[in-house]
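[SOLVED] Need 3D model of a three-part complex

Original post:
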Amino acid sequence: MAVEAAAGNVPGTGPPSSLTVFWAAFRENRGAVVGLTIFCVVVLLAIIADLVAPYSPYVQFREAVKLPPVWAAGGQANFPLGTDALGRDMLSRLIYGARISLFIGSSVMLVSLAIGIQLGLAAAFAKGWIDTAIMRTMDLIIAVPSLVLAILIVAVLGPSLANTIIAVTIVYLPRYVRLTRASALGELGKEYVTAAQVAGVGPLRLMFRTVLPNCLAPLIVQSALGVSEAILEAAALGFLGLGAQPPIPEWGSMLADAREFIRSNPWIVSLPGLAILVTVVSINVMGDGLRDALDPKLRRS
Amino acid sequence: MSIIEIRNLSVSFASHSGAFRAVDGFDLTIAPNEIVAIVGESGSGKSVAMLAVMGLLPWTATVTAERMRFGQHDLMTLSAAERRRLAGRELGMVFQEPMSSLNPCFTVGFQLGETLKTHLGLDRAERRRRSIGLLEAVGITDPERRLSAFPHQLSGGMNQRVMIAIAVACRPKLLIADEPTTALDVTIQAQILDLLLRLRKETGMGVVLITHDMGVVAETADRVVVQYAGQQVESSSTRELFRDPHHPYTAALLAALPERAQQRVLPSIPGIVPGQFDRPAGCLFTPRCRFAFDQCRKAVPARAGAGLGRALCHTPLVAGTPQPQGVPA
Amino acid sequence: MLKYLARRLALTLPTFFALMFVTFIAIRLVPGDPVEVRTGERGIEPERLAQFRHELGLDQPVWKQFLDYVGHLMTGDFGTSVVTNEKVLKEFFALFPATIELSMAAMLLAVSIGIPAGVLAAVKRGSSFDHVVMGASVTGFSMPIFWWGLLLIMLVSERWGLTPVSGRIDLIKYYFEPVTGFMLIDSVLSGQSGAFTSALHHLVLPSIVLGTIPLAIIARMTRSSMLEVLNEDYVRTARAKGLSPFRVIGLHALRNAMIPVVTIIGLQIGTLMAGAVLTETIFSWPGVGKWLIEAIGRRDYPALQGGIMLISSIVILVNLGVDLLYGTINPRIRHGR
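Solution:
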């Protein structure tokens, strides 16, 4: 009797694109979607800060010093989140602070990604002493505790926003280098690379067009998490007075100023830290979702 | 009295896309000293049925049966603690991958002694003595030294012997061997099977041998049960099965054996085992069956009598020819 | 095994060397006159300047200065603080026990809560307990710990008055000479009643703050490691042997699940040092972290240089120790492949 084709194939639809598959898997993780949403809100606020913030973050209102948020006793509606010790509007400072932190986070991520990929690929492809030199340097950077190294760099270069970016980039560089190198080494053993080499693909093209696209998944996840790590590290430097200098409204340095007000004006302490926490949590949760969605092994059927 | 009696065992798994029936109507009775083989392709439910007996299924599984009796115990109503007392003591199980079935962090002696301590309460000296004896019984040379070896220091065949030693340590009434030789070389395979036969003879235990290799079945089993897509499609003595298979699937399986080949090209069974979403109404084997006709597509077949291998077919085969419907078994 | 030890040791030597090189270069790069940087004095007269230059070896070629530097380090001379005029090494080790005590308390907390939480979350995968643990741990390692410390001080110390705000012990009521430098031990040794309790009291909040991030990471790692292990064949075998769930999970599964977790615990040492800097600053805990920050503020560059050299060396050595420990736990490495 006739044997039918394997049942279950719906004619007419091709296989879904990898982006659709990825988004479907990502969407399953509700936490990740929430994280993405919050992160997008923060990014949006940072971009349109000039439109959204009620005041400039630098303007000091001498008559409205240390006002509590609008819901507490003594709060005023025109300063919804209160003011700090110099009478600057908290809400505006927080919004502009988002701009600063995200700027730092993304700069660090982009620069370390760019440098890290090149070093990682170089180490994986060149092997020999280049590989050793690069990896030993990375080992050295890792050996020194992150904040301690950042402090050293800032001590040498001087505290500023730009130097914060440089310091944090150097501290987090090894992760990208190691990740790229490990992925690349894994791919190098595979046959499609040999095939490409036999076909005469030159080393540069081999590195960037052939191998790199297949190493992207863990790099994407690390980049997302890297932004949050950079924000935390920069805030720590800011807190220690080694980051962006006042009056720049960086969240960490806002906390440094707030130390004396723990008892008297707690919101000056709580709000900037809360901003950091919410931003970093949303990025981390999003990054977790990214990792689960990109790694086929973890996907549940 | 039979060691184990299972009637109409069904297992379904809860999954995102609905319940999946992995085992549908499984029957098994084993007498002491008997070796029964369960044969089938991957996905036929042969392992799942036995895991249900051992109580090793995850919480997503629902197990139902008319009867599931082991010795005096009704497995359906036993508490978890009582179940654990049976497992490893009266019921032993050996798995497919010997290299990963033993804990890499503990020595062979520790893992063997654990069973003896938990179920028999032996002291250390006695455990050591027994363990050495067990390792000898399963054919491992230099047993004293092996006791302090770690699993990754032993070969696959030796690990499987250790697994068997652990499974029979307390002289169980029934040993379930789930594809014990699939992951091993052919030469080792023969040795392991001989070992199982010898142990059976020495202790009188029953053995359930799960396999997909008909050759192994022919050599070792007394009776055979054939599984397809979770259903039991045929069940009879080995001799009878090989002489005259009654279900088209069994016939096709046997026809595919190289030893039975009559032409240069081995006949294979076209198509694949139905999964969760492409189960035919009516008989599950219909898409792949040479003899399928209208009735097969529409109605679930009734089980034929014992004389026809209890085949799940509308028109069971006799000497390769389907019998007309309605013929009494 | 010994070969493994020797090999790992050999691998750290270039790191040490590079570390010395980096700290040497870093101090030379600090803007300003090198003599002022090194002595902390400003506006020195020319003759004294020349004298200093000679004393500090600044009139030598750079490579010789580096060799001198290395030589000094070898003999244990990590420089002299320009603020206190004490040897950096001496100051460091006077303050180091405080940091160790804090770090160990934090790690103890992290491990004793993190591992059980991770195990339970894995065993009860998908339950509300699991979600809570996961949520708490994401929050935990997203936390800016300097803020977390301030928040806890605000609530627990100020508002509820449960713990002291700063310091290691109530200095008004108890004073004794440090014997080991570990307040918990010294307080017992001093024989003064209530001293130990006071010391413990002061330790609680700082160790919670410092231990939060390691706790979160350990819990997560334990959970994911446990989830993988629970699916392994040997766990199924253990169940088939009729062992109790406690034994299956607590012995068979956990022993294997711990292997990657121990690595993580080791890696946390570095994180703890970084975190200690912030925690000590907030709680005025007299450890090397706080000392380092003060050194920057006071432009005490020799102290900064020596301090960083010492902290990093200790972290490298501890990582080496953890590596070796890992080798003994993981039987595959212990007995060779």
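Edit: The radius of gyration of chain A is 24 Å.
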